[in-house]
């Protein structure tokens, strides 16, 4: 009963956070500094933002856990980062609230974590949140046993109960009260924590097992290309069934992979979609048209309204992406966006030591985006002359407000070349006219209260910025870009390693002290820096960068490599032991350490003419072949690596795979489903098929239609290919069995067996029927699968 109450409570809170995430909330005024807590001696800017909260925060470490065990208290864990808008909101609303602080201090040991300093802690507990069927995000709020096992969690909590429509969403004070009440039966909570911890470990292990079952071959690459739904109008990936509504992240690993694929014969449509995406991102409000650089992501389909953080890792990767795009298809807008973005990095994100700072906040003066947005009157006042105002408004779409009903986010409503034609100017002439107008606005903007700058230097992100600078230097033959990459690489290699040559994670300082390097590195620190060094070797030909890349690779293999299963663990073998040890595998906005290391190893093998590096790279790819087969959109950089491997050496695995028995303990949806495909002979230019799915008890599949908006992405779906090309098929799904969940919502499932029938046009080549499915039972869902039947 208690688990159900927790789930209901947290689903409601997550729904509230999600519904609010697209709007900037009014902020409370900053509180006066009170008594410092234990975070006051930390070097993380995010932790220091909480150093004067009345909450008795501890940094992550043994002191907090020892106190929790001694006093038999649960732990409240809060994870965020300095540029996180909703982290700031919760800090002001709840962690600065004396009443809430008293409840926390009396009943819990409170730990605050900067996810950028400790991504290992963040990944473990974010996975635990998802294992509890909750939506992930930051701030991450998690309740733990004194041993660190996750009981349950959510993201943002409002301080008080809140009415949303006809429902009342419980606030943080109410949630804390419920936890205190349930803690009277600690055994029940500990049992729940054991279940979630076990499920977390299974999820972390899901993508890197059963290595031999899936051969690495070209079909994995082509299947991966087909798996991405790309918005044909505004670019970017999303949910086609929802008309691509919702947030859009740039996800450079996706576009690096698709850009490379788009240049292959027969991929003209993909090339158009890829170019549309690159164009719409640089034209949209996600790009800073006055100061250069990209914001975090778009809150809606058109790339107009961003979350206004500027992260180093986004900009480093996007500089590399647009440089690669220019090398394949030279366009002046690609060159311009690289130059402007690197101008921003040099001006605002480069440390005196030549490394790069981490992030610029979304907020200034406690309002999200205030630094970047304009009213029409402000623009008129700054520019003065009517002709200048009219030109600027026409170019940047200043018509009706597009932010909070009164502000304008500058964006290009169409390509600059088209706007130039409308103005009867060449593109160069238009840019020359705009330059002094942009400078006037930029100078006025510079006098506003600036967003908070996170000055910690992170090895991994510096590696990505080095890679971007080096690639830009190589493509545009610009020595200043290459020199910036050289300076940063020298800094990291000389100032951010220990006496044994191993990398450290962070270069930062507590208040009043000089910055120093600290903290054990993670596999992404090695992977991204090695990538940057290899790009720098490409740009300069200097042997020292190749030598440094080899040395760091050898250290990564020694301390992070999995000698049994292949691939790399996120933490070193001698690092702090958490309740689980993960292998990161998701290429999100940043690639996973495993995908990046696989590509590094293949590149290093070629450069060194040493097959041992290439072989380890192949083994890393193989260790994630299951994920490439069942969920290819999760690993685009690994797909790119596989494609480069196949291009260079042919398909390395040609062996036919024998049928494998179902595992006794299912690890993914395919493990509990037996498919059988029957094809009829062609007739009148069409063929029909019947796909019988037998589902092991007590599992079920979500029917099509599933009958619930929340489950639409999990419903069973069949797609037909002929000769490797997707064809339009008329598919008839059986009606599912109706179920009702604990909240009264109805949905439909397939139990036992179900037969899906369809008709498709005949054509030359092999017929392949693919079915996407998700198997669940009471309280548990397996990772989704895609079955391919020929």
What is the gist of this entry?
Residues 651-673 are annotated as: Disordered. The chain has 790 residues and is an alpha+beta fold. The protein folds into four domains: 2-208, 3-Layer(aba) Sandwich (Glutaredoxin), CATH 3.40.30.10; 244-269 and 284-324 and 332-338 and 357-454, no CATH class; 456-649, Alpha/alpha barrel (Glycosyltransferase); 669-789, Immunoglobulin-like (Sandwich), CATH 2.60.40.1250.
- Major β-sheet, in short? 5 strands, mixed
| Proportion of residues in extended strands | 15-25%
- Could you say how many structural domains there are in total? 4
CATH hierarchy: architecture of the largest domain: 3-Layer(aba) Sandwich
Q: Indicate the CATH class of the largest domain.
A: Alpha Beta
Arrangement of strands in the largest sheet:
1-3-2-4-5
Give the beta-strand count: 30
Q: Globular, elongated, flat, extended or rod-shaped: what is the shape? A: globular
* CATH homologous superfamily identity of the largest domain: Glutaredoxin
Radius of gyration: 27 Å
Protein name: DUF255 domain-containing protein
Domain Thiol:disulfide interchange protein DsbD N-terminal: 678-786
Domain Spermatogenesis-associated protein 20-like TRX: 37-198
Keywords: Signal
Write up this protein:
- Helix 18 (459-476) runs antiparallel to helix 19 and helix 19 (479-495) runs antiparallel to helix 20.
- A hairpin with a 2-residue loop joins strand 6 (162-164) and strand 7.
- The chain is built from 25 helices and 30 strands.
- It has 4 domains: 2-208, 3-Layer(aba) Sandwich (Glutaredoxin); 244-269 and 284-324 and 332-338 and 357-454, no CATH class; 456-649, Glycosyltransferase (Alpha/alpha barrel); 669-789, Immunoglobulin-like, CATH 2.60.40.
- The protein is 42% helix and 16% strand.
- The strands form 9 sheets. The protein has a 5-stranded mixed sheet with strand order 1-3-2-4-5.
- The protein has 790 residues and is an alpha+beta fold.
- Residues 1-5, 7-31 and 651-660 have low confidence and may be disordered.
């Amino acid at each position: 009963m208690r688990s159900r109450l927790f789930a209901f409570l947290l689903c409601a809170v997550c729904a509230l956070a999600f519904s609010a995430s697209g709007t900037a909330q009014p902020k409370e005024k900053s509180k006066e500094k009170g008594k410092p807590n234990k975070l006051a001696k930390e070097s993380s800017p995010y932790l220091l933002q909480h150093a004067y909260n009345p909450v008795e925060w501890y940094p992550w470490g043994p002191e907090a856990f020892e106190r929790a065990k001694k006093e038999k208290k649960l732990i409240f864990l809060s994870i965020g980062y300095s540029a996180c808008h909703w982290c700031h909101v919760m800090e002001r609303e709840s962690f600065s609230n004396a009443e809430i602080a008293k409840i926390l201090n009396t009943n819990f040991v409170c730990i605050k974590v900067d996810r950028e300093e400790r991504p290992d802690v963040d990944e473990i507990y974010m996975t635990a949140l998802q294992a509890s069927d909750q939506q992930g995000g930051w701030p991450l709020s998690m309740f733990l046993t004194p041993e660190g096992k996750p009981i349950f969690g959510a993201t943002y909590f409002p301080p008080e109960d809140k009415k949303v429509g006809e429902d009342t969403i419980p606030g943080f004070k109410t949630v804390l009260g419920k936890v205190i009440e349930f803690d009277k039966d600690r055994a029940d909570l500990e049992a729940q924590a054991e279940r979630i911890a076990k499920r977390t470990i299974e999820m972390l292990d899901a993508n890197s097992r059963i290595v031999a079952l899936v051969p690495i071959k070209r079909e994995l690459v082509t299947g991966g290309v087909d798996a991405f739904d790309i918005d044909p109008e505004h670019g970017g990936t999303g949910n086609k069934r929802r008309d691509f509504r919702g947030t859009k992240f740039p996800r450079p690993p996706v576009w690096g992979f698709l850009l490379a694929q788009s240049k292959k014969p027969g991929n003209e449509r993909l090339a158009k979609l890829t170019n549309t995406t690159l164009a719409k991102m640089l034209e949209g409000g996600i790009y800073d048209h006055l100061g250069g650089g990209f914001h975090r992501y778009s809150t809606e389909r058109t790339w107009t309204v961003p979350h206004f953080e500027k992260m180093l890792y986004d900009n480093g990767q996007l500089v590399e992406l647009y440089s690669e795009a220019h090398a394949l298809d030279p366009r002046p807008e690609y060159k311009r966006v690289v130059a402007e973005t690197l101008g921003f990095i040099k001006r605002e994100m480069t440390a005196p030591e030549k490394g790069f700072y981490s992030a610029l906040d979304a907020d200034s003066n406690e309002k999200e985006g205030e630094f970047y947005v304009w009213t029409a009157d402000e623009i008129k006042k700054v520019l003065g002359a009517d002709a200048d105002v009219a030109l600027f408004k026409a170019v940047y779409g200043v018509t009706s407000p597009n932010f909070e009903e009164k502000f304008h986010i500058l964006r290009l409503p169409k390509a600059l070349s088209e706007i130039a034609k409308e103005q009867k100017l060449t593109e160069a002439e238009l840019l020359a006219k705009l330059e002094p107008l942009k400078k006037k606005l930029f100078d006025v903007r510079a006098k506003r209260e600036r967003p908070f700058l996170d000055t910690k230097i992170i090895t991994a992100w510096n590696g990505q910025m080095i890679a971007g600078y080096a690639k830009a230097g190589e493509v545009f033959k610009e020595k200043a870009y290459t020199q910036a990459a050289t300076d940063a690489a020298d800094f990291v290699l000389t100032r951010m390693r220990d006496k044994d040559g191993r990398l450290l994670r962070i270069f930062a300082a507590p208040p009043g002290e000089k910055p120093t390097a600290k903290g054990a590195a993670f596999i992404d620190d090695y992977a991204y820096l090695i990538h940057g060094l290899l790009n720098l070797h490409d740009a300069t030909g200097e042997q020292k960068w190749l030598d440094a890349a080899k040395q760091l690779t050898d250290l990564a293999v020694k301390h992070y490599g999995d000698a049994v299963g292949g691939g790399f663990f996120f933490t070193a073998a001698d690092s702090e032991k958490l309740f689980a040890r993960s292998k990161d595998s998701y290429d999100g906005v940043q690639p996973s350490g495993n995908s990046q290391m696989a590509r590094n190893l293949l590149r290093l093998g070629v450069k060194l003419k040493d097959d041992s590096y290439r072989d380890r790279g192949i083994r890393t790819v193989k260790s994630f072949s299951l994920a490439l087969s069942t969920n290819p959109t999760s690993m685009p950089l690994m797909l790119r690596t596989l494609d480069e491997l196949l291009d260079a050496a042919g398909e390395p695995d040609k062996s036919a795979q024998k049928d494998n028995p179902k595992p006794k303990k299912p690890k993914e949806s395919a493990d509990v489903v037996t498919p059988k495909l029957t094809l009829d002979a062609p007739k009148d230019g069409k063929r029909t098929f019947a796909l019988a799915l037998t589902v092991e008890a007590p599992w079920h599949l979500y029917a099509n239609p599933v009958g619930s908006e929340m489950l639409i992405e999990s419903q069973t779906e069949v797609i037909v290919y002929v000769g490797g090309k997707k064809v339009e098929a008329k598919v008839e799904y059986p009606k599912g069995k109706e179920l009702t969940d604990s909240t009264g919502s109805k949905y439909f499932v397939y139990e036992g067996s179900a037969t899906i029938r369809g008709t498709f046009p005949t054509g030359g080549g092999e017929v392949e029927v693919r079915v996407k499915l998700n198997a669940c039972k009471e309280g548990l869902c397996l990772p989704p699968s895609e079955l391919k039947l020929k």
